[in-house]
Amino acid sequence: MLWAARGCFLLWLLPSILRARASPETRPSSPLCQQSPTKASCKGVGLRKFPKELGQGIKYLELSNNFIQTLSGSNMPGFGQLEYLDVCFNQLEAVSATALAQLPRLRSLLLGSNRLDRNYLANGEAFHLLRNIEVLDLSVNNLESHMASWYISNLTSLRVLDLSGNTMTKLLAGTFRNSPRLRQLDLSNNYIMEIQKGAFEPLEELEVLNLALNSLHCVSGFSLTQLRVLNLSHNALELFSSEEEGAEPYLLRVLDLSHNRLLSFPELPRAHDLTHLNLSNNLISSLLPGSAHPREFVLLYKEMQRFNRTVRPVAALTHVADLDLSNNRLELFPFSFFQSLGSLHSLSLARNCLQDVARESASNGTELSVRWLDLQSNALRVLPRWFFNSLPHLESMDLSSNSLQPCESQGSDQGRDLGGDSHTSAPGDTCTPFYNVPHLKHLSLSKNNISRLQPHAFNRTPLLSLDLSGNRDLSMPMGALGGLELSLQELSLRDNQMDEGQAALPCLGTLRVLDLSGNHLSLLPTGLSCSPLESLDIQNNHLQSLGTAGSWSHSLRAVLVAGNPWSCCSLGWLDTLRAAGVAVPDLPQARCVFQEHGRNISARITNTPHWICPQPEGAASLALLVALMSLSLLTAWAFCLLRKGRKAPGCVGLGSNRVGVFQPHPKGKGPAEERPADSITQV
Ligand SMILES: *[C@@H]1O[C@H](CO)[C@@H](O)[C@H](O)[C@H]1NC(C)=O
Ligand SMILES: *[C@@H]1O[C@H](CO)[C@@H](O)[C@H](O)[C@H]1NC(C)=O
Ligand SMILES: *[C@@H]1O[C@H](CO)[C@@H](O)[C@H](O)[C@H]1NC(C)=O
Ligand SMILES: *[C@@H]1O[C@H](CO)[C@@H](O)[C@H](O)[C@H]1NC(C)=O
Ligand SMILES: *[C@@H]1O[C@H](CO)[C@@H](O)[C@H](O)[C@H]1NC(C)=O
Ligand SMILES: *[C@@H]1O[C@H](CO)[C@@H](O)[C@H](O)[C@H]1NC(C)=O
Ligand SMILES: *[C@@H]1O[C@H](CO)[C@@H](O)[C@H](O)[C@H]1NC(C)=O
């Protein structure tokens, strides 16, 4: 006992001995802080006061998530080296000049989420001493415009300033007068409605400006040519136009105008470097210049006079690679418009009202550089052949939630002739030629109400992934996927309510991922044995058995099986899968059915005792089962061993001594009420 007690003491003493050794000048250290010679972190340790005892040579101090109310102190000896101070998420409301005067080397001061709206006059005066501060976070401090202005009015070295999440309503003209070196300015999440003329003028080095989540209605004469990134998303902008005069090119690369009320494409005649333009969630109904009519605006602006001039707003946008126009009101795919965007890689027109692609003579023979095209959730009924011919680099296309029907092709080599190469889609065209699209690798035709897939519909299109899910009652005859035998790796036929007659797969020699869930299959397609499947989803079908799973299980890693009426008495396939090391992650949810006195009983597969199945020497009765189930854990364990010996599936659930057996709905469909077996009575 004594020995044990001493050992205990020794263990307790050891850390303090070590600590004492580590600080030879026996500096009193705060026990809650983690400390190295130049860094100290006291994050969320319940501090109420600035831990003055740390001191001596600390350069980096983290005090966030505490309850500190004041930074004061006539003596804060030893913080002369401090360069970085984080006091975010405290209750700071008073900062004294004497305290700050003792931090001459401070470069970064993070004070977000405090109460610096209080005592702002006195605090702000103290801030004027922070001559060398480069990074200042004053976010979420309930600061109004004039308070923010006062705080930064003498910080001439500022490079990075965060004023987000305050209550500023306007930007005053003189706010940044003394911060000419500012590079990054975050003003997001305020209530800014007005930017006074010249407010940004002193900021000649500004590169990143975030004005997202404010209340701006109009930006005209935008002239910050030095900006690289401008975020104006989530405002109420109806108009965005850049300065008309001036020859200086803009350096803007990223412009986010998403979630506004723009009616037309922004005017950016000199933004030659723009690569990323986000116009999603606006009200743009046409991309043709000057198309927005003044009466469509909520407010009136003098800039509207310019609208009936023909400007080419995109003439300069030769570097735009990424254009997001999703969630707008476009009805036509404006081909010639995108033609002037020579570097466009990624284009989203998802969730517009596209019914057709514009058939302008100008688009004859022109090509777009687009590789990734999102047209989901529109009202497209047909895409003509010329459309694909004009997108020779197309690799990925999302056409889900439209009404497109794939055309038939003649298989092998003749595909190109069908569907025509004409530049207009004939009025009678009802189908879209998805064959012979030379670089298309990923295609989604989910939810297109496709009723029948025609033979060789994707012939000579080197698809790696194809999504045909959500096409209720889709019929896919043998040969429909002909031509994809040596390319297709992922296929989804999910939620199509297909029976085995409608889901004929050819021999897909490279298929790795297959989703067949949500159908009416009682047999798997025979073609499967050709495929080196790694992942298979067959949930929610009518399968009773997988027969000889061995033929394709050698490459399989995971299979999902729940929601099928598996037969409890032919679960040999499960053994085969397990022997092959295949994961069945949803096995606990899977159920099987057995017959008892002419009725179908459903049980969890993991808990199904093997003796419910008819055996040559006479079937074990359910009464015996009930008796057995009430035996001790030892008996259960013994059975477990016995079953293991016979390679019967899963003993996993028996430890709980409860078997989930329940009565199926009449006809074996619909929800069944679960009843534990140990409470089951003879049925
Ligand atoms: C602002 O800074 C300048 C020097 O950078 C100094 O002369 C002036 O007194 C400061 N103003 C205030 C109000 O502290
Ligand atoms: C613009 O700000 C919004 C809101 O904070 C944000 O979701 C979006 O990612 C930002 N855009 C860019 C390009 O950073
Ligand atoms: C555009 O903005 C939306 C919403 O803010 C966002 O979901 C989308 O990813 C952005 N698009 C691009 C291309 O950045
Ligand atoms: C269009 O321009 C003409 C003169 O070219 C002008 O008289 C008219 O007011 C302008 N329309 C609008 C809507 O500004
Ligand atoms: C389009 O080009 C084809 C040849 O590629 C030509 O026969 C046809 O007349 C052109 N149509 C128009 C409207 O220019
Ligand atoms: C789906 O297609 C069938 C014809 O194949 C048509 O009768 C039905 O109206 C279409 N449904 C929808 C929602 O478009
Ligand atoms: C039991 O299930 C089998 C196969 O699912 C079915 O053929 C039979 O009609 C069902 N019997 C009853 C009584 O529901």
From TrEMBL:
Residues 399-429, 662-683 are annotated as: Disordered. PROSITE patterns: LRR. The chain crosses the membrane at residues 622-642. Residues 1-22 form the signal peptide. SMART domains: LRR_TYP. InterPro entries: Leu-rich_rpt (IPR001611), Leu-rich_rpt_typical-subtyp (IPR003591), LRR_dom_sf (IPR032675). Residues 399-413 have a biased composition (Polar residues). Keywords: Leucine-rich repeat, Membrane, Repeat, Signal, Transmembrane, Transmembrane helix. Pfam families: LRR_1, LRR_6, LRR_8. This is Leucine-rich repeat-containing protein 32-like. It comes from Cyanistes caeruleus (Eurasian blue tit).
